[in-house]
Amino acid sequence: MKKVVIRECPDYTPDHVKTTLKESLEALGGLEKWIKPGDLVFLKVNLLTGKEPKEAVTTHPQLVKALTELLMELGALVILGDSPAGPFLQGRMRKIYQLTGMTTVAKETGASLNWNLESDPVYFSAGYRLKDFHVMKAIKEADHIINVSKMKTHSMTMMTGAVKNMFGIMPGLKKAELHFRFTDPIEFGHAMVDICEYASPVISIMDGIEAMEGAGPSAGDVVKNGMILVSEDPYSLDIVASEHMGIKPDSVPTLKAARQRNLCQSLEKVTLDTSLGEGIKKSFKLPDTREPDFLEKYGRWPVVGSIFKQISRKHLRPKPVVNPKKCTKCKECYTICPAEAIDMLEKVPGFRYDKCIRCYCCQEVCPEKAIWIYRPKILKWFGGTK
């Protein structure tokens, strides 16, 4: 059975974070179980976009600093990095490192920031959907990867945690291409699992001290959550996190895909080492992107199901909408859209919904939270959503 450790940590006070993180890791055998002096360790943090730590969009720098210090105490060499949404360019990375606090972490600890923006093609024979793809060159050069994710809801995948965090080893706009290639959520989930399996992080850590609910992964609301989660198995870690957030594992494409491949166990088969006295359950507000599930109810009647499917795709699917009062015409959404379904109409984004693949990358990268998801109220009448 896989083990997941949860420890309470009320805030980002340095002593609280470092002590809690060290205790969590010791419950799994300590960092020395995986790391030796001289090892080059890549900390794959979540740096989705250039947001300050208080917005809970990215892995908090205090957790990254504590982990870096623990690694350096063992004699490891540490490099911090991610390939955020959008172009993978030095100027963009400099801004993101500064805003997210990673520049400060590097200065205070002596860790390196990843400035190697090159990528290498890899062949992964065990991939279910992905065998040939590109990864950051810095990932290949590291001895070990440690996965340092953020607990958040996600408009496309319901939650983003340890497994999806590894998507960031794929450089820049290559990620957008993958969205367009795998428009079905479960197929996309398999691709995420392929990348996670290739990366094989030695340990996965989740920043759940402050989390995000609602319109995640970037436009949601901050939740004071007070916990750090650690596991050697990213799938078990995500299962526990999904249970805590009130999300059914099978509604998370990465977990459903992992289950289909026998990589993921049920919560009952996870060994849970927790300091929480009242259990782990807590319901998060979920994204408004859930699609109607009544097709499954009527699926036994092909003709009826076909009619409902056509109606659903045209009239009942959630869709991104722009708030013109918040939009600054920065064109981030236009640049990122993998389906090229956005036009700049008088410099304000306009959506061609017949082309939109509902990946919600546009909402994800919008710096002003100007894109929201419209979800027809009539969906509630059908008694359920995915």
From TrEMBL:
Question: What's one Pfam family here?
Answer: DUF362
Signal sequence annotation: none
Keywords (A to Z) from UniProt: 4Fe-4S, Iron, Iron-sulfur, Metal-binding
Q: List GO molecular-function terms, semicolon-separated.
A: 4 iron, 4 sulfur cluster binding; metal ion binding
Top-level taxon? Bacteria
Enumerate the spans annotated as 4Fe-4S ferredoxin-type domain: 318-347, 349-376
Q: What is this protein called?
A: Uncharacterized conserved protein, DUF362 family
